[in-house]
Amino acid sequence: MATELRPDKIVRVLDVGCGAGRMISFFHQALTVLFPDSIVEIYGFDQAGHGAITMEGPAKEAIKYLSREIPEVRWEDRICTVPPCAQWPWEGEFFDAVVSNQVLEHVRDFDNLFEQTYRVLKPGGISPHLFPLKNYIYEGHIFVPFAHRIQEHDLAVSYLRLTHRLGFGKLDAKGKPSKKGFADPVMQADWLRRFTNYAAKKDLLSICRKHDFRASFRYTREFYTAKIRQLMKLKPIYVYKRNRSAMIDRTSFAFFKYISSVTLFLQKPEYGEHNQLLHFSPEQYLSAGALSV
């Protein structure tokens, strides 16, 4: 992501669905090193829900953690909780990047998410998202293959009851797979219905196009390379090449979308709407920034 950023004096990044703030801490430290001549500002928000008792609940844990890890920043001004489907509390064209990690499979209203992302991004800003598509075989919350693809409630409950007997989906007190664990198939079916919304690639790209984003699945293969390097205890790679093979990206995505998460990479065009866009000269394209992507 850092390669795609074009930092000014201030680099602003928004973490959508920031949870406990771990990724915010990572970005703050990494971007401060990568852009030593810029001021780095990382913001984040989460939504009420998933068991939150109050509107302030989801943000409190992140503020507490970040205040301990990075005490020089007043995180109360950077982290907040936003009601579902509401407008985000930042002005237009405020951020250089809007990111999320394992969030899009929980989003109910994709139109609102991408509309708000487009609104708060600067022209040329980027928005990478790491998440599993509907193609994903092994549902990663209850650990039952194909569970997220069954829409009919009774069928879902019967399927989950069967997979529990086969040893799938039983969880311990920490939500990890366990042979000695327990799971209620009705409650699991309800949880998947209420809190997940896995999207198909075609539908997702259609929504991205509707909101005028350049959309691709670049950096999916780099995600898996990073996981392998992590398992081999090799030094992480933080900067990736911008000049890439779209064919290789597409081929790797076609395989990895069944295994685990993929990376949806969005960019807001640098220029506004132009009726004569197809008739621009190369000089006009360069001045508009279209060829700098």
Question: Can you walk me through this structure?
Answer:
The protein is built from 9 helices and 9 strands. With 293 residues, it is α/β, with parallel strands linked by helices. The strands form 2 sheets. The protein has a 7-stranded mixed β-sheet with strand order 3-2-1-4-5-9-8, with helices on both faces. Strand 4 (95-101), helix 3 and strand 5 (121-131) form a beta-alpha-beta unit. The chain is globular. Mean pLDDT is 89; it is low at 51-55.
Strand residues, percent? 15-25%
What does the average pLDDT come to? 89
Class of the largest domain in CATH? Alpha Beta
Strand order of the largest sheet: 3-2-1-4-5-9-8
CATH domain topology of the largest domain = Rossmann fold
Topology order in helix (H) and strand (E) letters: EHEHEEHEEEHHHEHHEH
Q: Major β-sheet, in short? A: 7 strands, mixed
Radius of gyration: 21 Å
How far apart are the termini?
A: 13 Å
Structural class: alpha/beta
For the record, the CATH architecture of the largest domain stands as 3-Layer(aba) Sandwich
Label the overall shape: globular
The overall strand count is: 9
